[in-house]
Design the sequence.
């Protein structure tokens, strides 16, 4: 594969790291060339170091790959990050400083003012922020991030409505899958036959990230979207797929037909550029009265599409609907891969 | 048991019928003397006619009881109803006409203007509506109903806030247990590892019942509470206990301490009268950041208390919190039994 | 698709019927041309008549297809049957009488002495039995069946051992997925957080079918395999994939290496013929100590392979191991499709 | 409570430690006076140190109790042990050496030749082994253990059969609840919609403990029961209650009636002595064809009874049946409490 770009994965053994490996198998542009994880894994073959939790097998080439130390020396120049925030906060600057394009799923730097938080279908123009990063000046390295798994499906569904009708208020209640908490993550004793009405720090992330993502690039900073945003986050006994009950108020009044047309017709830049991981239709409105459902619909668009359903009037705000998005594909690894594809398409890889 | 009042159960073999039998075992005032169900069950011993789905055993006396035809002849004068709405709509008037006190969990007549929809802690005064019922004039019979399982926990939590601070807006998103759909109810293929974002007609019931319950008795009619109310209902893989993510706006501003005090200090009429099924504290505020949870908390107050937690500021309305209530005890059979206790205490049995 | 053979599906709307449609989408030899189901569905478009429960979409051509009456008139000459046994018992003879090749997943005629019960990898020679069927003489029609979903994975795993070492005793304990009970099938109230240690008539089928499948064709009858066979069947909260804990005694002693080699090296007729639905390796031995597991492994070989693991000594018999097989693919629709492929390859369609 | 015996709990914060506290609340003979856990918990109030996972509240007196260092100084003379084996192996000798009666649920010393492994209904006479323990001679301290959660229900069901008909062979396949693995224990990502056919070291324990429990005290050693015993252990998505599919061969032939009578009529020493935690009927045979089931039956006899069902002929051995037992009550804390009650009744406390 002479023409593929070598990429590395920081945090390769976790649930999101596994999804990176799965999504990059056979990728037309990128090739996994380097894996790093915690010290405990260093030097071991990936297949032994990781506790693989996906239904497809570990790609043969990756299974034998040795886990490298989590240091920039010897790492490729494109690095995907699937680390916990506390570790990412230390490591991402080191890799950016060393000249790497750091494409991160971690929450560590998402809200930093000079770090773009990007969904290619929504705010690809925010990438320009990287030119303000000190690393960029020094070594050409930079950090680009993608949002939390609970925010991304929602923001995809909100984006065409915000553009067409301007959001005033957004209320979101989530029912989130256990894979969002990593592995081992949520104990079975906590979630079997249960709902946990709390995910640490999730509501704050969901609220502030939504406003940054739908914000406006003004000069070299992002002006967050000014609508009011409130989130309530719950964990449910679902493996993959975050389901969300949403209510919104719009500034310009819209009919149900107009809203559904805005969703179904949404074809932003990644679709126009035919980026390899961009789903043909990023938002799919389902007409059945009881859809979307995580077990049946979270793999829509190879896990990269957002499913929406049940649009109906709301007595308190204007409209209510249900959003579903795959939390470890579109909500994590796939989000970062799509960011990398956009960066490449825009010439940010050298 | 010479002094106990004989009661009958219409729809005795279903999930709610079973809860009636369980809750009435050893009841100090009432004694199950008559059971009716569908034609298929008629004449069979209860233990054979029902598919018992509770963890406690069928009370011995009930197990042997023959299932009677679903007709007023020979039935006691106090009848609990656990029938589907379509059948209840036909039968409840027949029993009321025959002079029975019909205490119904069915939705059939709940919204009829002369039928009281009652939670004893909230609107016991609405019982006076029965005097307008044509059956009452003819035979002294009447119909009293209790709300839907998704409304009752919410309305209990709202009542002291509405009294003290006046509600302006209420947004509710539910995560409802499968037992709410009866037996066989929700297919396992539909709910294992899944969320179903739809329950037929549930949102409409929840919205209109909440406003009737918190409405005001003016002369001989109920003026529904004027706040805006919006519900989104989901089914989750939980056996018992409906969890709800709530947001409210209040007319009078209140602090978190005032709201929690209003909940914890709520001691309305059923508690003052020490009705046998009234929980000592009808609303319990839990301070742990991740409670209430259905598996651990739905049996609070023997399933008759409502648990509330996670009170925090909302960016769109004023406050957000989580409500949990046992859907087949407080949300169905227990609601009707408590209504019967209130009726007895107020002299409506005789 | 001019060269494809038209096939029909009796019982097309159920869970197994849906799997037939899914597996036949894009099949190189067969094309779904006719669908029948209960009277209730007749005349409706398939997409409306069925409650589709698979993760892939209904193939577009099938979605619009009208559901036909369940009668041989107008039906194609190759008919897959996904009916309940009680209905199949009546209908299969009608279609065979009318000259159809009836390839059935139903249990109705499986144990009838002139009806072959076939797993292509195990006992393709049993197909010869059809020449004794009265329908065959009259109209060239016939009935071929595949085994119960609990038997097929086990028998695949036993076949190479029986051939090489001769089975003396087999003990099987199953943990079966809910999809095996059809839709709506198992109520969620029965299986959430539970095990049901009983499946009506399942143990009897599993025992007698295993002996017929591993039996010997002598002249025009099957001499059942003479080993002792005992089954205990349980239902667990799994969507797809039957897991089985097996113990066996062999007549010829064998080492673990020999047994594993017999499994991994098993390449019978369907693999040699490269039948389209035959998995490249029908039995896969997994070396990880905790595999196979239904959620991760039931799709092995596109759901057509049997996974085996945990081979170890048994203190009572000789060996213990775990078997896993997809119950609605290899255990139902896929079994019948593979039977059809073998029939075609052997010239029985024509 | 002047006359109660003070007891301590080693490993008080885990799932089994919590069950000890729950079962000892209001115990007529014992009173929790001392709690110890890992260093991390030392000095903190129990309510803060533990992550309470039971449906009943922490007893008020215990909630405020300070967690002590895990050392004999200051500990009561009766110590219940709920520690992991690796830690118990070090600590149990220290407490016995210091003169404590160590009543352990840990597997550390269970198979040591001078340590009794006891189920009061089965082999109370084995307690005599403690007189051979070196600690006993020195300080009057000793160690008594109870079996693994997978063995105890089975051995209870086997005991009356072994006494009456003599076991020759036993095959057991378990479907074990997640609470058996402690907290956090089994990850939800591993068990939702899944079966794990492996529990580390469980089969070995189950086999050897069953033979020791049903063995014979000869002089000062236990002669293990000579029947062949084979176990296969699986984890399923059940909160509490181990379900087991059992097959046995008996030396003396017995009818189904005789076997059921042996179970239902079993009234050994703990029942005759009316020990406080002994269930009135230790083995309950259920006649419904689909019982016992963990969700409905594991609380039989307050979690201390074993439920048995589905007795039927086996083609390989003689009989098959299903056993169910609560794994953290009868299978852990309750087993140790009942052992303590027997020790007290026999005068070993003093």
Sequence:
């Amino acid at each position: 594969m002479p023409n593929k770009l070598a990429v590395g994965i920081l945090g390769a053994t976790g649930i999101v790291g596994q999804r990176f490996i799965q999504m990059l198998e056979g990728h037309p542009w990128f090739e996994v060339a380097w894996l790093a994880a915690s010290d405990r894994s260093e030097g071991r073959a990936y297949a032994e170091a990781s506790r693989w939790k996906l239904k497809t097998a570990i790609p043969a080439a990756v299974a034998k790959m040795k886990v490298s130390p989590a240091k920039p020396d010897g790492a490729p120049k494109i690095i995907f990050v699937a680390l916990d925030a506390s570790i990412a906060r230390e490591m991402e600057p080191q890799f950016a400083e060393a000249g790497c394009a750091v494409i991160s799923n971690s929450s560590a730097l998402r809200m930093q003012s000079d770090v773009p938080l990007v969904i290619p279908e929504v705010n690809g123009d925010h990438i320009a922020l990287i030119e303000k990063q000190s690393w960029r000046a020094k070594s050409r390295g930079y950090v680009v991030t993608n949002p939390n798994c609970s925010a991304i499906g929602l923001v995809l569904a909100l984006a065409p409505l915000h553009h067409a009708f301007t959001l005033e208020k957004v209320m979101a209640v989530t029912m989130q899958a256990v894979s969002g908490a990593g592995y081992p993550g949520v104990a079975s004793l906590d979630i079997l036959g249960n709902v946990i009405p709390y995910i640490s720090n999730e509501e704050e992330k969901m609220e502030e990230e939504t406003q940054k993502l739908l914000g406006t690039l003004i000069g070299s900073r992002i002006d967050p979207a000014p609508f009011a945003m409130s989130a309530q986050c719950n964990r449910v006994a679902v493996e993959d797929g975050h389901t969300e009950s949403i209510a919104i108020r719009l500034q310009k009044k819209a009919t149900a037909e107009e809203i559904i047309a805005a969703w179904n017709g949404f074809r932003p830049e990644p679709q126009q550029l035919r980026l390899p991981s961009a789903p043909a239709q990023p938002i799919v409105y389902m007409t059945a009265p009881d859809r979307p459902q995580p077990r049946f619909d979270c793999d829509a668009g190879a896990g990269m599409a957002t499913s929406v359903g049940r649009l109906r009037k709301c007595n308190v705000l204007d409209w209510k609907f249900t959003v579903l998005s795959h939390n470890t594909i579109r909500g994590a690894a796939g989000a970062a891969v799509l960011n990398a594809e956009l960066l490449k398409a825009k010439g940010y890889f050298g």
Remarks:
- DSSP finds 13 helices and 14 strands in chain D.
- Chain D has two domains: 5-148+333-345, 149-326.
- The CA atoms of residues 141 and 210 of chain D lie 26 Å apart.
